[in-house]
Amino acid sequence: MNSTPINFHGQSLELLPERAIYWRDQQTLILADLHLGKAATFRARGLPVPHGTTARDLALLSQLVTRFSPTRVIVVGDLIHAAESLASLQSLRAWKAAHPTVTVQLVLGNHDRHIHAEQIAETVDLLNDPHAECGLHFTHIPLEIPLVPSICGHIHPAVTLRDFDGSGVSVPCFVIDPMQIILPSFGGFTGKRVIAPQEARRRYAAAAGRVVCVP
Amino acid sequence: MADLSLLDNWFSASGKTPFAFQRQTWTAYLAGESGLVHAPTGSGKTLAVLGGALIERLNETQQAVLNKRRATTEPFRILWITPMRALASDTAHAILSVVESLGLNWSVEVRSSDTTASTRKKQREKLPTVLVTTPESLSLLISYPDLRDRLTGLKALIVDEWHELLSTKRGVQAELGLARVRALNPQIRIWGLSATLGNLDQARDALLGPQVKGKTIHANLSKQTTVDTLIPESIERFAWAGHLGLTMLMPVLAELDKPGTALVFTNTRSQSEIWFREILRKRPQWLGQIAIHHGSLDRKLRQKVEQMLRDGALRAVVCTSSLDLGVDFSSVDRVLQVGSPKGIARLMQRAGRSGHRPGEVSRVITVPTHAFELIEFSAARDGIVNKRVESRLPLNKPLDLLVQHLVTIAAGGGFDENALKQEIRSTHAYADLSDDDWQWALDFVSHGGTTLTAYPQFQKVLRETPENWKIASEKLARMHRLAIGTITGDGVISLVTTSNKKLGTLEESFVSKLKPGDCFIFAGRPLEFVSVRQMTARVKLVTTRRGSVPQWGGGRFPMSTMLADGVRQRLDEARQGIFVDEEMRRVAPLLLIQSRWSVLPAANELLIESHKTREGQHYFIFGFLGRLVHEGLGALIGYRLKRLIDAPVVATYTDYGLELLSPETVALDETHWRTLLTTDQLVEDLLICLNAGQLARRQFREIARVAGLVLASSPGAPKSMRQLQASSELFFDVFSDFDPQNLLLEQARREVLEQQLEISRLKQSLEALQQQKIILTQPEHLTPMAFPIWAQRISSQTIRVEDAGARIERMVARLEKAANETEKSR
Predict the structure, then answer these.
(1) Which distant-in-sequence residues (6+ apart) come within 8 Å of B245 by Cβ?
(2) Which of A39, A117, B72, B578 could form a disulfide with B573 if both were Cys (CB 3.0 to 4.6 A apart)?
(3) B539: which strand partners?
């Protein structure tokens, strides 16, 4: 398996090329920014994006579940994209039915404001924001100065890889700061933002089936 | 014979005689004909095309007295389309002064993106007698259902500076708008105005469409153009490449010291900012006497400069192609061209900004920014003298514009599919639109793609019956109107001072690199960046002299094949010791270095220089075929080289040649090069290049925007649009994965095949190269000819011949290897 282990405040975490983290001790997959139903939102508002992106994201999640057999999945925000994406919760329900042993937990993100608790009560357990566990805080939006070790998403981080001729190409990455991990977006139909290097920051590119640290 | 006397009288009353081409045009117009008038700027072309419509109106009134005091002006009659909004108000003034002196109670108004919302609203209620507008604003006009009826009653449609629009998507947009107007007014006469082109009759046919037989009328005014070059004192100290050319600042200042008004043309907005700043630095006393003009400046600033120019109140204006066209500045005494104009026609056009009146000599002073431009000036002068002028080719059925137009028409009151198909086929661009492509476009706007299942819940245009298609909601119509327009722009950010004064626009990519406190120069003023929010960047005026100059993308012209041929000829002469003019004599020492370090190729020789640096192995191939051809050759030969040596290759191209760079060192002999340049397997190889490389992906950027997939982020856009932001890259990927047959992807491939990888042109070029004798050299240094190509790579005019996934895989693998090695050494 092409995962990269890191130690974050006493917890061993595996960074996966599929843009997720596996927390083996807790049998937990951690993801951020699925933006399920984003393409459907576009279609409903007159932009022709083909069908299939949400199904692909959920299929990828199934693969991870098959590989690691986790007991739960924590999503640190932005499970869905917009009000028009609520229909995709149906796909998530079907996914949950196919994986009855896995609990899905969610810290709400800014895009999740359209979700009513009762709509997802049977599929997803809502967590507090932040959710604290084993000394780690799970929240959606990264903090400027995090005071407790946190795991978050929101910004869809990316890093630029340099080629021999000096040109660059950006790929999704994990940002590992001393007090904070920012996950890349798990959803396939999402944008990304290049994150600059910084003192004591490590950026791990998740691309081409590997996770590698970019100096 | 039509009665032209009314206008003849008017001419003689003002002490003038109409030119023959003007009377010819009036007669043709009055006979119900359409056509194209070929006349240089300042030759009375406006009166040529307007005259017929004026006589027609005057004859209607017959002997009746024109009542000037009538309360309301006459109804909508003439639509005038201009490629640039900067031209619109001047054109309107010119027309107004004519109709007023004829005693006609006409209103003449402008409608462009510069027009205020209140004026636009008033125009929607009542159109003026003459409306001056741009192709985009015409599209917008027909997207309002209530305006459709008001367009009937139109007598004449005039397209100014048609040569500027001809080979662009904006030109196709104009064709579609014209077809709409013609469908509503079958009797309408359409007249175009064009500067000199190599293919005037084709230009006329593109304007009128296949069903109309039109006339081409030539002004035949002898216009003399002289080209003088400011010769650098010493070529040895002169830059070999670059685009600033400030070495020539002092001679330029000496020109500007002379009395009268000068236009200083530069090729990019950044370059105009730099020159403006440097001129003021050396001549601070000219503050207020010199101005800057480019497309990113706020409308008010531009208009102020234009007015001062008209009043003769300025010593000089540093400008870009924003002042290439139209605007009648008879007060301009001198024109300077900084850097290569890249085409013979463009240099003629710019020269024509001086000596604007019939019979006067147009003079342009050319300013080289690097040594090889001396050769280009010499070749361009030769082209002007021998009347070799480039052609511009019209575009063939861009589907992105078609889908945009379908939504425009749907928003503008809906359509009948058969009637609209006929209407669209009446344009030159879509004359051979197939039923399949048409059906696809209808499918695309009505349910997203070819299959219903692929696009559930999609809503844009609803088909109630085949005769009745309309926009799904008024909200979508509003969104569409915001997006109309075909000019690709990076995200545009408005630039506003902290006291709310509008300065103009910047590109998102530049703003994203700014930190608060950073200083930059805009419109010649030093500014300090404060913040950016919702597509608006706030700045404050400061007094610092430091600061970067903003970069704007796009806008670099490729050198025309005709000029490239001219350059090649000059080099061949130089090799034989013939130096025909001062430019060539001055560049001689540099050509001598070239021949010492490598060779100066003869017309029948193909020079390939190989050179090794820390970056890897470079091959410079000097084809002298112009940038567009070199781009295609770069993709093809780059791909073949990669296959041959099994190592990554990146190709860089300029007007003179191309560079192939690989990190692996490989020695190639003539046999290798012959194989790389073969026409065998050309189509197969090109298709692999197309599919593997990044060319189609890059081309898709503009297509996605025109087709309305990527919403232009603009300050006026509603907040809810933020949830609809996705890059063209993302669209490209999602279509490739889930709807690979999508015709917009197909169009991206087709455009690449027609533009960069045009097969017949590449085949011809390869055959021509095959005829040449291959000269291989291994110079120790980058030669004078190689250096500019090498320097070009920095500004990233490169092509990759590697699949994006494979490239990332290779880079990641390399990183991993490096990481493992570091690990081991610990």
Answers:
(1) B239, B338, B339, B367, B368, B369, B370
(2) B578
(3) B497, B529
pTM over 0.95: no
Query: Within 13 Å and on the Cβ side, how many CA atoms surround A17?
Result: 11
B638 touches chain A (CB under 8 A): no
Residue B130 near residue B98, CB atoms below 8 Å:
no
Q: Do A42 and B724 touch (CB under 8 A)?
A: yes
Question: CA-based diameter of chain B, in Å?
Answer: 103
- The CA angle B810-B816-B817, to the nearest 5 degrees, is 90
Question: Closest residue of B to A35, CA-based?
Answer: B723
- pLDDT for B336-374, tens place per residue? 999 988 999 889 888 888 876 666 788 899 999 888 899
> Which residue in B503, B178, B238, B263 sits closest to B371, CA to CA?
B238
Q: Which two tokens stand for residue B240?
A: 């070999």
**Residue B620 CA to its chain's centroid (Å):** 29
A207 touching B (Cβ < 8 Å):
yes
Q: Which residue has the tokens 């029948």?
A: B604
Asked if the C-beta of A208 comes within 8 angstroms of chain B's C-beta atoms, the answer is yes
Beta bridge partners of B293: B319
Q: B715 to chain A, minimum CA–CA distance in Å?
A: 20
* Spatial separation of the C-alpha atoms in residues A37 and B4, rounded to whole Å: 67
Give residue-wise pLDDT tens across range B178-212: 999 999 898 999 999 998 888 999 999 999 999 88
pLDDT tens sequence across B615-670: 889 999 999 988 888 888 998 999 999 999 999 898 988 889 999 999 988 889 99
- DSSP 3-state assignment of B191? strand
Q: Which residues of A touch B804 (CB under 8 A)?
A: 169
**In terms of DSSP bridges, do strands A150-152 and A136-138 run parallel, antiparallel, or are they unpaired?**
parallel
**Tokens at A45, concatenated:** 């508002």
In angstroms, how far is the first alpha carbon of chain B from the final one? Answer: 97
Q: Which residues of A touch B400 (CB under 8 A)?
A: none
Question: Hey, are the CB atoms on B453 and A53 less than 8 Å from each other?
Answer: no
With beta carbons less than 8 A apart as the criterion, state whether B398 and B702 touch: no
Measured from the Cβ of residue B727, the count of other Cβ atoms closer than 10 Å reads 14
Q: Looking up tokens 């491939």, which residue turns up?
A: B749
